[in-house]
Amino acid sequence: MTAVVEGTANANDTSQIPAPDGSVTVTVKIQRFNPEVDSEPHWESYDVPALPTDRVLNLLINIKGYVDGTLSFRRSCAHGICGSDAMQINGINRLACKVLVKDLLAGGGRRAGKTRQGKPTTITVAPIKGLPVMKDLYVDMEPFFEAFRAVKPFLITYGNEPTNERIQSPADRERFDDTTKCILCACCTTSCPVFWSDGSYFGPAAIVNAHRFIFDSRDEGAEERLDILNDAEGVWRCRTTFNCTDACPRGIQVTKAIQEVKRALLFKRV
User: Fold this and answer.
1) Burial grade of 91 (CB within 10 A; 0-12, 13-18, 19 or more)
2) Predicted confidence (pLDDT) per residue in 204-215, tens digit
3) Are 235 and 188 in contact (CB under 8 A)?
4) pLDDT single digits (tens) 203-242
5) Residue 119 dihedral angles phi and psi, to the nearest 5°
6) Can you tell me the distance from the alpha carbon of 93 to that of 192, in angstroms, rounded to the nearest whole number?
């Protein structure tokens, strides 16, 4: 189950955060928004100790636990599988549990959070774009999952149930292997400029999950999904910017999958 982290407020005094040997001090700049008191988002900064091997999620948990309990964000497995902690880190959609501090230190510096040129390290953290912000770093995912459900992301078959399992060759399985890796984190969809400007676009993640079944040799619902994606808000809205492919934490070739769905529509061949 995904946890939404909330709590009680404290001043931005980071002195209580443990500073282990080898840690550096980095500034974590977080976009904050509480709909009960804020009319618009604002930024707050926290100077926190961090080991180069820490993940950004560790820093957020420390800020929440030792500094400001009202900081709100989603997290669950913390191992890059659940997809809960998608957020913008230094302006790029990433999973907070997969980004190491050492990869964000300015110029690779290790001492006092600074490079050899003395530049301090600042890590900016903001919610993913294109979805309504509910509080701080977590957003309303319902529009995202509505699009996901609309493409019928499940096996569709007709006729009598087989007496044994549905057989599939390794080659047939390989055909859609890449798109089985999706963890529904929304990094790809919320990196898409079309989705930012028009939330009615299905978005890359929904198309990826449709692809996974359209090209499954055991499935008989490809035409239904292709009809759904042939809509004005379907695959034809894609502008091939590759933002989605760059953002995917699982390395899925998202843009390639979208183009394959387009070709299936054009040539009526799966």
Assistant:
1) exposed
2) 999 999 999 999
3) no
4) 999 999 999 999 999 999 999 999 999 998 999 999 999 9
5) -80, 130
6) 11
